[in-house]
Specification:
Blueprint lengths: L2 E6 L9 H15 L5 E5 L5 E5 L5 H8 L5 E10 L3 H13 L7 E8 L8 H16 L2 E2 L6 E8 L2 E5 L3 E2 L11 E5 L5 H11 L3 E8 L7 H14 L7 E5 L1 H10 L5 H19 L4 E3 L12 H8 L6 E2 L7 H10 L3 H4 L21 H9 L3 H10 L2 E3 L1
Parallel strand pairs: 5-6, 5-7, 10-11, 10-13, 11-12, 13-14
Antiparallel strand pairs: 1-3, 1-4, 2-3, 4-8, 4-9, 7-8, 12-15
Helix pairs in contact: 3-4, 7-8, 8-9, 8-13
The structure holds adenosine-5'-triphosphate and magnesium ion (MG).
C-alpha cells in the first residue's frame, strides 16, 4: 500500500493547542483529496499519515495536497514493519521501482520511535550498505542524486525519496471565518489567499452590474472561485446584482462621493451575508494609496458602514508584489482578462480622496438603501 506522509511547520509550535490545529489539518486533507483515494488519515507522533487506496492518482493528489495550507511538505511513501530486515526488504523494493538511475545516494533516517533498537545513523549505515551492495550506487552524503528518507515511527517505518513542498501557513478555518469581497481584479483573490493561509475560512461575494454591462465579470468571479475553492472547499460564491443600487446612488449622491457609497453598500451587503454564514470578518483587496478610493480617510469612512472588522491583508503591499502572488496562485491570468466591473459604471472622473464622515452620514440619510439592499440579497445567486 502507498501512503502520504505530511509534515507541518508552524502548527508544531502551537503548544497545548497543537491537537486542535492537527485535527483541522486532518479534516482539511480529507476534504481536499478525492474520497475514493484514501482509506484513513491518522496522526502518529507529529506527522499526518494518509493511507491510500488502489484508486489513488498521485498526480491529482499532488495538485490537491499543494493547496492544503499548513503543510510544510508531504511525501509519497511505502511502509515497512519496525524491523530492520523488513525495512531493508521494502527499501530495495521501493528503489527497484524508481524511474531513474542515480549515480550517488544517501540515506537520511529520523527516529520518532526512540525505543527502536538502532540509532538513526546506524540505520542509515546499514540500509545504505544494503543499497550499495544491491545497486552498486556510490554513497555521497553531500553531493547525491537520490536522498532515501526513512522515518521510524511506532506504527512502522516509512520510506520515500521526494519531499514535495507545501505552502505552509495555518490550516484553513483554524482562525475562524470571513467573507471576501471578490472583484474580478488582481488584488482581491490574492487578499483572500493570504487570509486563508493565516487560517481563515472564506465565502466570496461578487458584485456585478449585469445586465447593464456584459456578464464578463461574473464569469471571471466564477473562474476565480474555482481556484479559491481548491483552498477552502466549503466556501460559497455569492453573486449580487448591484446595478439598481448604483443607479440609486448615481441619482442621489454628488459625483465625487459615489465610490464611497458603492463601497459602503458593498460592505453592508457582505456583512449581512457574513452574519448569515457565522463569519466574523470581512476581507478586501485594498492597498494603501493604490487608487483614489483607497486613501486612509476613505478607508475609514467606508468601513464605518459595518460593525465587523474589515481586514486588508494587502494594505502595505506594492502592486508588483501582489502580482507575484497572483502569478504563483494562478489567479493572474484570469484577473487580467478584460471585463466591465460594476465600479467602472457611473464612476466619477475625480473621486473624493478625503471623504468626510459627517458629510457621508448626512448624505446617506437621503438615500433609502435599506430596501434595495434587501432586494439584492433576496435575488442573489449562490454557487457551491
Ligand atoms: P481588485 O484588483 O481586487 O479589483 P482594485 O485595485 O481594482 O482591487 P478597487 O476597485 O478600488 O481596487 O476595489 C477595492 C476592493 O473592493 C477590492 O479589492 C475588492 O475587495 C472590493 N471590490 C471592488 N469591486 C468589487 C466587486 N465588483 N465585487 C466585490 N468586491 C469588490
Ligand atoms: Mg477592482
Amino acid at each position: 500500500m502507498d501512503y502520504i506522509i505530511c509534515h507541518y511547520s508552524e502548527i508544531g509550535l502551537k503548544g497545548s493547542n497543537r491537537g486542535f490545529f492537527e485535527k483541522k489539518l486532518v479534516s482539511n486533507i480529507k476534504k481536499a483529496i478525492p474520497e475514493n483515494s484514501f482509506s484513513k488519515v491518522k496522526r502518529p507522533s507529529g506527522r499526518i499519515v494518509v493511507s491510500l487506496t488502489d484508486e489513488a492518482d498521485k498526480k491529482i493528489l499532488k495538485k490537491k495536497m499543494k493547496k492544503v495550507f499548513g503543510l510544510a511538505y508531504f511525501c509519497f511513501a511505502k511502509k515497512a514493519k519496525s524491523d530492520l530486515k523488513d525495512i531493508e526488504r521494502e527499501t530495495l523494493k521501493f528503489l527497484d521501482e524508481i524511474s531513474f538511475e542515480p549515480n550517488s545516494f544517501r540515506v537520511t533516517t529520523t527516529r520518532a520511535d526512540k525505543s527502536f533498537k538502532y540509532t538513526s545513523p546506524e540505520i542509515s549505515r546499514k540500509i545504505g550498505a544494503a543499497i550499495n551492495k544491491r545497486f552498486n550506487w556510490k554513497v555521497d552524503l553531500e553531493d547525491y542524486d537520490l536522498n532515501l528518507f526513512l522515518e521510524i515511527t511506532k506504527k512502522g517505518a516509512f520510506i520515500y525519496s521526494e519531499k514535495i513542498r507545501g505552502d505552509g501557513g495555518l490550516p484553513v478555518s483554524s482562525s475562524g471565518k470571513g467573507a471576501l469581497l471578490l472583484s474580478g481584479g488582481i488584488d482581491s483573490p490574492v487578499a483572500g489567499l493570504k487570509m486563508m493561509k493565516r487560517g481563515l475560512a472564506l465565502d466570496f461575494v461578487h458584485f456585478h452590474a449585469y445586465p447593464l454591462v456584459s456578464n464578463d465579470s461574473i464569469k471571471k468571479a466564477e473562474d476565480l472561485f474555482d481556484i479559491l475553492k481548491g483552498y477552502c472547499p466549503e466556501g460559497k460564491l455569492f453573486l449580487i446584482a448591484f446595478a439598481e443600487i448604483q443607479k440609486k446612488i448615481r441619482t442621489t449622491i454628488p459625483e465625487k462621493y459615489r465610490i464611497i457609497f458603492y463601497r459602503r453598500a458593498m460592505l453592508k451587503i457582505a456583512e449581512e451575508i457574513a452574519d448569515s454564514r457565522n463569519a466574523d470578518t470581512l476581507v478586501t483587496g485594498e492597498s494603501l494609496g493604490q487608487v483614489s478610493s483607497q486613501t486612509l480617510p476613505n478607508m475609514r469612512v467606508t468601513e464605518e458602514a459595518v460593525d465587523l472588522p474589515v481586514l486588508r491583508p494587502l494594505v502595505g503591499e506594492n502592486k508588483e508584489e501582489i502580482i507575484v502572488s497572483a502569478k504563483k496562485y494562478e489567479t493572474y491570468e484570469i484577473s487580467i482578462l478584460p471585463d466591465q466591473d460594476c465600479c467602472t459604471l457611473f464612476n466619477p472622473r475625480r473621486p473624493e480622496t478625503k471623504a468626510d464622515l459627517k458629510k457621508v452620514l448626512k448624505l446617506e440619510k437621503e438615500l433609502p438603501l435599506g430596501e434595495l439592499i434587501e432586494s439584492a440579497i433576496e435575488n442573489m445567486r449562490v454557487l457551491t
